[in-house]
Amino acid sequence: MTASAAGAETGAGAERSVRTSRRGGARQAGSPGLAFTLLALAVLLVVSVTAGLAIGSVRVPPGQVWGIVSHALGFGWSTPDWSGARETIVLDVRAPRVLLGAVAGAGLAVVGTALQALIRNLLAEPYLLGVSSGASLGAVAVIVGGVNVLGQVSLSAAAFAGALGALALVYATARTGGRITSSRLVLSGVAIAAVLTAILDLLLLTTDRGNEARAVLAWTLGGLGGVNWSTLWLPGAALLLGIGVLMIQARNLNLLLAGEEAATTMGLDVARFRARMFVLLSLVTGVLVAAAGPIGFVGLILPHIVRLVVGGDHRRVLPTAALGGAVFLIWADIAARVVAAPTEIPVGVLTALCGGPFFLWLLRRDARRSTDRGES
Hints:
The chain is an all-alpha fold. It is 78% helix and 0% strand.
């Protein structure tokens, strides 16, 4: 068989496998199983939001929570029987925080899902390209330097600028001969992240005020406190943009699962597609880190959990991961508020405590499966 004939046969086989996967995915996408999973997660999300608004140092009954929310939205279906203080707590203190938790959890889970497909590495997560380190450095510079040019949004703006700066450095160092490979991009991200982290540590060591170091430590561990309605629109817009583009590109993400050669055979420009997706995902991650700090493990473990339930088709995985990530981070934030009350634990600590053991179990399970396949 000639090389061209072999290549044609390979291309035909790849096309047949993709068509088969597409037909199977279409059947699965419309199956009651997926619809039931999404409906169950949507209901669980409503319950989680209710719990997030009700639970805290001041407990608000769920009936009052929805009464307050309905009145704020103009649907006065119940007679107000709550105090003004409770209304302020629900609407101005807890509601922005809970919504940010849902947005950040959904965004990190979706970004992690896409990155694992783009790099074909199950250890990939949203902070792989150094964006988190850049955002952290920007925020630390504002805290240590006492910069307050933009008022309340100074810290978020500096964090986002740092994320963009880190992304530019990573792309500048990874680009060689007009091309960017995924391995070079990842290595550049690791190197830039190490340098930026060293600069951040240097700023912490040279600051002479302990309160600033404590504030920096709290921010770098991730948290949802301090958000307000005026700053919530940007992460929400970033989430909608990211999910919208990724759902449109779900077929191309599925093609990458078959390998670069098969994806190229099916007409996908892998290098250009990856570059565009990396930019999009880095920008979404930068916005989320600027709003909530670097909250780890959400984008690493949620995609694995979702794939165990709905399979590997990204048309199924992406919406399920978004809902699952939102639910997970809301409950992690609730635990952060109540476990050591009145002291609040940074939510990033709890996500690491939950995600670390799960991921170790997942690695051991995959290792056992690989061993069993090798022995058979």
